[in-house]
Each structure stands twice: as structure tokens, then as C-alpha cells.
Amino acid sequence: MACDQWLAKLDTYLDGELSAEEMKAFDAHVRTCPQCAAQALARVQMKRAVHSAGQRFAPDPAFKARILQQIAAQGAAPAKAAGRRSIWNLAWAFPVAALALLMITVLVTGLSDRRSQQQTIASELTDQHVATLASATPVDVVSTDRHTVKPWFQGKVPFTFNLPELQDTGFELIGGRVTYLDQVSGAHLIYRIRKHEISVFIFPEKSLPRNLPSNLPAQNAFHLVTFSEAGLRYYVLGDTNPTDLEALAALLRRAASS
């Protein structure tokens, strides 16, 4: 089946409305096709952004009550208040109000875009973490040996990276797979500590959107630590305590700088 035929069913796939057999086939295809995987991630981001925007500006009952009181007060004003002076004031009020609204919109949009970018990245990585662990085959290279996992990525991602020695650290390497963020290919590694799985995502810094935040918001029960080292951006995510994530991040940083 050509990619255009897969993409025609993409929305149905993301909504979980395909048959079990088709869902399994589509899942297998997305894992091996960068184009379809990138389109799927973009579509998930769009759905999440639309859902978030629809809930962001819902007015509360107190706001509605204040508006109704102001309307009632204006309706009870003397008839002469609708005379020439009010018309003149309104003539100036509209452009001034429009300019003020424009300035507020620019400021709010800038802040909202930044928050939205942070939330989108954190949500996307969390979704990938959960989906990977729920999969019957969470990793494509299964090994606790860093010298086996690291070479597996050669030719599959456009960069190289070092992995830390884990002896006596409490962490265990499970394996890895290729993943995508904003259509950029990267490495997705799975670690374990005290029965908690931790995802480590690695991407080339220069290929990611500019001005990414150094700290990302937690998503539900998951925590996220990120840092940049040797031209690579690392995201360490899991439902264990933040201290564990910081410890693993420190090991990765030392390995990357060695």
C-alpha cells in the first residue's frame, strides 16, 4: 500500500476507528515510514492545540454577571447621554479601543504561543512515552549493553551519541528505537529504575525549533528534564521522582561530554 493510501486513513487511525487488524498494520507501517510518522505527529499536535484553544478562554460566571450589570447600567442612563457628546466620544473610543485590543492581542498571543509550544512538546513526548510502553514491541533493539544499542542507531539517525556506564547506579538500559519530534528524527532510549520506565529522547539541537524552553511543564504524573550537550538536545521523561530523572540526566551529560 502506497503512503498516500495510508495517509488517507490517518485521521481514522488516530481516532481509533479502524479495525483491529488495520490498526495493527498501520502501527507497524508508521514505525518504519518517516513520512507517515511525521504526518501522524503533526496531526496529533493539531488536534491537541485545537482542543486546548477551545478551553482556554471560557468566561466564568462572575465575568458574565459583570457584563450584564454594565449593559443594564448603560440602558438606564438618561436619554440625553445618547446625544452629540456621546457620539463624539464613541467616535474616538472605537479606534482607541481597537488599538488597545491589538496591543493586548499581540502580547497575549506571544505568551500563549510560548506556553503552547512548551505544552505541545511536553505533551508529544509524554504521548510517545506512554504509547511506546503500551506497545507489544516498545523497542527495536533490545539490549542492556550500551555497546550494542549505540551502534544500532548508526545510519538511522543523523548524529552520534555516547551512553553512560550504569554499573552500581540503579539504572538499567532496556533498549532503543528511532523516533521523531517536529519531523526531526532522533533516538528514543528506555531505561528502568525500581520498576519505573524512563524515556530518554535525543535530537540534534540545530534541527529543532529555535528558542525551545530549558524547562518544560510536567504532564499529569510525568516529570520532564531537558538539557543540551555537544550539540544534542536530551529529554528525560518518566513517572518516577524528579531526583531519579536528574540523576540519569547527569549520567547522560557526563557521557555526552566525554
Structure description:
This protein is an alpha+beta fold and 258 residues long. The chain has two domains: 52 residues; 143 residues, Phosphorylase Kinase, domain 1, CATH 3.30.200.100. The chain is 53% helix and 17% strand. The protein is built from eight helices and six strands. Strands 1-2-3-4-6-5 form a six-stranded antiparallel β-sheet, sandwiched between helices. Strand 2 and strand 3 form a beta hairpin. Helix 3 packs across helix 4. About 9% of the residues have low confidence.
Gist of the model:
This protein is α+β, with helices and mostly antiparallel strands and 258 residues long.
Helix coverage percent of residues?
A: 40-55%
The name of the CATH topology of the largest domain is Phosphorylase Kinase, domain 1
**Overall CATH class of the largest domain:** Alpha Beta
Question: How many strand elements?
Answer: 6
User: What is the total domain count?
Assistant: 2
**Number of helices, where a helix is a run of at least 4 consecutive DSSP H or I residues:** 8
Mean pLDDT: 77
Sheet having the most strands? 6 strands, antiparallel
Report the structural category.
alpha+beta
Query: Strand-and-helix sequence, N→C?
Result: HHHHHHEHEEEEEH
State the end-to-end CA separation.
45 Å
